[in-house]
Amino acid sequence: MRIILQREVESLGEPGDIVEVKDGYARNYLIPRGMAMQATKGALKHAERVRQQHEARQEKALGEARTLAERIEKTPVQVQAKAGEEGRLFGSVTAQQVAEALERSIGEAVDRHEIRMEPIRSTGTHAVTIHLHSEVNATLTVQVVAQ
Fold first, then answer.
1. Higher-scoring residue by pLDDT: 65, 51
2. Element (H or E) spanning 21, and its range?
3. Tens of pLDDT, residues 89-108
4. Domain encompassing residue 9
5. Which of 25, 35, 134, 147 has the most CB within a 10 Å radius?
6. Is residue 88 located within the same domain as residue 137?
7. Could you give the number of structural domains in the chain?
8. Which of 111, 104, 100, 120 is nearest to 138 (CA)?
9. Which DSSP state fits 35?
10. Cβ(79)–Cβ(143) under 8 Å?
């Protein structure tokens, strides 16, 4: 059965794509959940509009991610943690703490799940990668200071 995707479906495609799937998969899963619609003449015209809207949203999201990445890379973040005399932390600095410090610094929330890092266990300066978009990653400088 030929269908038009209304939403992004893993391993099938993006909104507006016309794909061929098994009848049962389309009738029992994709169409009832609003993820797809049957490909008819009128629906094919609608598919082109859906594809254009999806591309416009993706371009806008990419632009916003690039702007945010520039702001993040310009702004170093300072996190305070309890530490021993040799600079070893009692515990560690987590992605949640980095996200909160970043939000205080730039005024915009970043999901802690998008922060790619190992727990920081020592004082000093550390580089942390933040995944903002499929094409955009930002490198944040985190300075850990002993309390």
1. 65
2. none
3. 998 999 999 999 999 998 88
4. 2-66
5. 35
6. yes
7. 2
8. 111
9. S
10. yes
